[in-house]
Specification:
The structure holds two protein chains of two kinds. By secondary structure, chain A is an alpha/beta fold. Chain A is built from 13 helices and twelve strands. Chain A has a domain of about 120 residues: 3-Layer(aba) Sandwich (Rossmann fold). In chain B, a hairpin with a 2-residue loop joins β9 and β10. The chains are: A alpha/beta, B alpha/beta.
Chain lengths: ~325, ~325
Amino acid sequence: MALLDVTNLAVTFKTPKGPVYAVSDVSFAVGKGEALGIVGESGSGKSVTVKSLMGLLPRTAKVEGTAVYDGEDVFNLPKSRRKHFYGVDVAMVFQNPMTSLNPVKRIGEQLMEGMRFHRGLSRADAKARAIELLDLVRIPDPSSRLRQYPHELSGGMRQRVVIAMALANDPALLIADEPTTALDVTVQRDILDLLDSLRADLDMALILITHDLGVVRDRTDNIVVMYGGRVMESAATEDVFADTEHPYTEALQSAIPDMSMPRGTRLDPIPGSPPDLAIAPRSCPFAPRCNYASDECHTSIPALRAVGDTAVDAASPHLFACFNPRGVAANEGASA
Amino acid sequence: MVGIGQESLREGESLIRVENLVVEFPGPRGSKLQAVSDVSFDVMAGETLGIVGESGCGKSTTAKAVIRMPPPTSGTVRYDDEDLAALTKEELRSRRTDLQMIFQDPISALNPRRSVWDIISEGVEIWGTHGVWTDARLTELISSVGIDPQYRDRKPFQFSGGQCQRISIARALALDPKVLICDEPVSALDVSVQAQILNLLDDLKTEHDLTMLFISHDLAVVRNVSDRVLVMYLGRVAEVGDADAIFDNPVHPYTQALLSAVPGSGIDNDGSLSGELPSPLDPPTGCRFHTRCSHATDVCKTTVPEFRQFGKDHWAACHNPQGTPVDIT
């Protein structure tokens, strides 16, 4: 059974100009110790999806659907349980490490705060654990770092500290929202490698949110590709790349320059701009920008369906929401 | 102080020629932070030079020093065979139209209270080039960057990030520049929009006969646009040369580490970067990269490596290069 099972999640924001449909009909599951990549551009609803799970959305947000974590209904946790659910069972790391840390408190204080609150550790025990955590995230000379302030650390080091804070209470699920977007490529690789090894060592599940397909390619078990608040394609990572079904997933891959391309290679940009989420979804959100859109795409929303014989109840079925798929499913449709 | 040399400078007519560029900023307690130390490079007319490196390596400062924003501490910048430092304020101002810049964050680069038309035509107003840039031609320019001219009275907040970057590009082009300095022009954009802007820059470069300095931390983007590449580390040039040579056959351990760090690069490099970027306030002696280099030897700690040639247009400053120097004259 999956550790976290999200079904038909929908998030709508109330605004003075009317509702904004940020997330519609999103379902996915993460197994124990598994890594899931959620890929999408800004406005795709990837961050809103995980923020709804973390209870971080403003009151103007209306959340529908269910999220079950280890048998518990995440959206209806009693207040007393919520206090320890977040930070102990599930922890989160954000994009910008500088804004995640309190600039006027020492690293050590910030690391120990969570442990002392959730586990009632003594100062000495918490300090020992803090040193252990900094060591775990491979920060050199951890005991002297405890007395430093965030501004004394580089961007990569700060993100390591934030990861250490998230790990303080041994979460079973870590959500990382664009953890490396603000960092250099060299540091990015170190942080992603670190998350990989921590996941293996601590048997922790990971949801990695990114706009970069390259980041999730070698590091996740499953991928969910989102666009306009909906799931476009969802499958085991190797299936997404070996047999890309959705035109959006395909377009994302060909729009990104690749180092192996000779200079001056013309890219295939995705024409147009992302959809206006204030309009109630009635058609495929990608249809206006899609090269393969047919009449059907502009009038109805394609349901998620599975490729070939990968049954919907399989461990990780290859699902896609498109009337004109591009991969193996295209031929199936023609012969049927 | 021994510099790393100017061997990489080419003979012949270069549009921009930078020699021994040094840019210093005041540091804490009277110290000096040298953001750019003894950098020399040249750019031929019509060429695109990509400048890459991690944050803090001085790539933006280098490009900005070319347009004297701020003026370099020492070193010369020759543009069109003219020493920019020797010009009077008024003369320098008249050269500014030739050298235009587009920035990373397109939204903050535009005045939020002015319309697109005002933003794009302001330069024409100031320079009195209405004769050349008639309203009809400006309208044409706006549509050539992919903005519908019927939205000319809208303000920047009514456009997306990608569209704002298009407006910034049109604003720069309305002054008929010869050189376009692009400082991380696609880093703040979504991947689907990135490709649109890169293709647009490529089209406009041909159409307007532009020379470009293209700064980016994204190596795949730099590979896509650059004829030549300058790899910088902590204020110094590590490797410079033809883009294909640098990407296909890097010889500097830093370039190799940088390339192998790109997700999905497929390059397995055991010499991955160890440790942190040293403080530019107190840069390491000798080769500045020696503290993180897996090939470093004793000589790297004491002597600044000089440029050596590794191909027709391929230079690297390293004592232990991962390739054989050649002597081509």
